[in-house]
Amino acid sequence: MSGFSHVPVLLDEVMRYLAPVAGETHLDGTFGGGGYAAAILETGCTLWAIDRDPDAIARGAALAARYPGRLHLVQGGFGDMVALLGERGVIELDGVVLDLGISSFQIDDPARGFSFRHDGPLDMRMGREGVSAADLVAGLPEAELADTLYRLGEERLSRRIAKAIVAARAVAPITTTLGLAEVIRAVVPKDKSGIDPATRSFQALRIRVNDELGQIERALVQAASLLAPGGRLVVVSFHSLEDRLVKRFMTEACGRTPAPSRHDPRGLLEREVAGFRLLTPRAVRPGDAEAQANPRARSGRLRAMQRLGGEIEA
Asked: First-to-last CA distance in the chain?
């Protein structure tokens, strides 16, 4: 694994909005390469770190050894954080950070099957269990496959791609990343932006394999429920499907939704008092220097909110 690298996206901004203080207890719900975790631990906090990938948990052992008694690694999905932490006696947190992007370690390892840049098994499972991308490609009916590519990959040519996949798998199973990419590239013209024709389809399959949107929805609700007064939730997303979920959740939690029309009977009901305040009126994006130094950071968007009560900091 020494040939792989991991550079945390928007690290300075994450630390500014999370604002960890020595003695606090925080959660990194997406441990990955440990970039955020190392920075949080440097402040003197106790940190719980969740990752569904057993490889990430194994990599974290070295970091845990550097901070004995302060880094606690837990394997599992961040959408189950309440249960995972509750089993360990943790019911309240001073801060939660979630990096919704795929780990560099996962995408750079051909054996994991996330990327079409190198040939490997068509897998895409973050947790190493359950249905793989190859299973979906082999078994989904054409209409359901097209719907998956359209909804989760925002692929306009989803029907054309699904038809091509069904035709190709009738001849021979599609079991490798390059095998699938070649089928897609044969029917999708190159984009003027330079994005590979297979990009959106690979995204869609990965999201479905790992139930990523469901995990995010559950994680947001649970993270908010775990925050102590003054506690902060910081989320970094990397594509519009993720960011829309985060934006909608934080907007509603902070009472930023528009009031009903005066003709709407719901306007007569007393509105609930918001339990949170929005720290980021709009998404925070990487600066030019970071985007140039780390191309994977370009699509990053950070949003943050804080539970009301206690001493609320700016």
From this structure: 40
CA-CA distance, 128 to 247, in Å (whole number)?
A: 30
Query: In this structure, what CATH number is given to the domain that contains residue 82?
Result: 3.40.50.150
Whose structure tokens read 């029309």? 261
Ranges assigned E (strand) in 33-111: 46-51, 71-75, 93-99
Do residue 95 and residue 134 come from a single domain? no
Of 311, 245, 302, the closest CA to residue 279 belongs to 302
59: tokens are 């990599």
Q: Quote the number of domains for the chain.
A: 2
What predicted TM-score, i.e. pTM, was given to this entire model? 0.88
The structure tokens listed for 115 are 């990327």
Residue 1 inside a domain? The answer is no
Contact status, residue 150 vs residue 158, Cβ threshold 8 Å: yes
What is the C-alpha to C-alpha distance for residues 4 and 296, in angstroms, rounded to an integer? 14
| Ordered per-residue pLDDT tens for the chain, 314 residues | 333 346 789 999 999 999 999 999 999 999 998 999 999 999 999 999 999 999 999 999 999 999 999 999 999 999 999 999 999 999 999 999 999 978 777 888 888 888 888 899 999 998 878 999 999 999 999 999 999 999 999 999 999 999 999 999 999 999 999 999 999 999 999 888 788 999 999 999 999 999 999 999 999 999 999 999 999 999 999 999 999 999 999 999 999 776 555 555 645 444 466 799 999 999 999 999 998 898 888 899 999 999 998 554 54
Q: Is residue 3 part of a domain?
A: no
Q: Please identify, among 190, 210, 230, the residue that sits at the C-terminal boundary of a domain.
A: 210
Tally of CB atoms within 10 A around 197: 19
